[in-house]
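Human: Here is a favour to ask of a fellow structure person. Comparing notes only helps if you start from a blank page. Give me a protein, with the fold worked out from its sequence. Please set it down just below, with no commentary around it:

Assistant:
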Amino acid sequence: FVLAEELGIRPIRSQRSAARLAELADLFEQGKLRLHIRSTFPLRQAADAHREVETGHGRGKVVLTFD
């Protein structure tokens, strides 16, 4: 983050905690939080999912599913 600050870029820092995750899950259940899922892949195709993320194209999350 030091380089970003030197360049005048304000980094986005997020807090990761069980409490924050519970809050987000609650908002999702209430319909107040929408998640855009771009694509899903079964775990056995994780390499394909990774390649899709690396393209940098598209919006939304790439999700791995467990069969």
